[in-house]
Amino acid sequence: MTAPSPIRVAALYRFARFPDPAALKAPLLSICTQQGVKGTLLLAREGINGTIAGGAGAIDAVLAHIRTLPGCAELEVKDSSAETPPFHRMKVRLKREIVTMGEPDIDPLGGTGHYVKPADWNALIERPDTVVIDTRNDYEVRVGTFAGAIDPQTHSFSDFPGWFRAHREELAGKTIAMFCTGGIRCEKSTAFLKAEGIEDVHHLEGGILKYLEQVPPEQSRWQGECFVFDQRVAVGHGLAPGTHSLCHACRMPVSPDERLSPLYAEGISCPACHDARDETQRAGYAERHRQVQLAEARGAAHVGATISKR
């Protein structure tokens, strides 16, 4: 018997100018539904962002449609694969921003930092005059990051402007190298730094995912795994599935060591949230976990759990 083909997972974004994003929603959702593609796509006046999964031909059809949208002809996609469906449903949502920074005057189409190819990234971050900044959230950084990178310890991307302004004097006059999961947060954060008067700003083109895809492990400066916003939870070099799972109580990644903790109970609690939940809440999580297991036993998808984007 022929083994089933892996599911294609396509992470994408494009800053573009959509005068009426609401008009784009229904046709986009329609083609995704027709093709059996699942995932989440965000539309805003500043462009499109999201991750979708499905058969290779189905993903090609959706991407062809997206490339017909204004300013999206040059859309780039970061491909990976999954053995099991990483999403349970298809959502197309209208947003104020495709990645929320909360700085309405920042326009990446007006200028961002210098793009750095994955093959050239190591040389930049190893320079003694380079300050490397991880623009992702604290729980993502805990899963993995580049050696020596600054962790701003932000809970959400909208905290980043405040962090920068609190450390402006330390960063003035330095060469700044920034990175994020797929590149979108860096396009906005480097545009923000330039608007704040920092000129020598660089960012990793294609983000961590492109770096892990293209740079051999023996040459890599990446440590750990890369958190992703789907049911895979994390990926490693070559975009192979990682070792982290997801706590379905708090939606945070859980490492193999954390799963050995007495505070960890699958589907119910983990060391990060155990003390923040009472017995009634844990009982509710236990029932939800039981329903998930029953659905899996029937071969059905349970759609009650989602991954927080915080």
From TrEMBL:
Gene: trhO
Name recorded for this polypeptide: tRNA uridine(34) hydroxylase
Every Rhodanese domain range: 126-220
One Pfam family this sequence matches: UPF0176_N
Keywords: Oxidoreductase, tRNA processing
Naturally occurring in which organism (per UniProt): Sphingomonas hylomeconis
Keyword hit for Oxidoreductase: yes
Top-level taxon in the UniProt lineage: Bacteria
Function as written in the Swiss-Prot or TrEMBL entry: Catalyzes oxygen-dependent 5-hydroxyuridine (ho5U) modification at position 34 in tRNAs.
E.C. number: 1.14.-.-
The keyword tRNA processing appears for this protein: yes
Family from the record: Belongs to the TrhO family.
Catalytic reaction annotation: uridine(34) in tRNA + AH2 + O2 = 5-hydroxyuridine(34) in tRNA + A + H2O
Segments forming a coiled coil: none
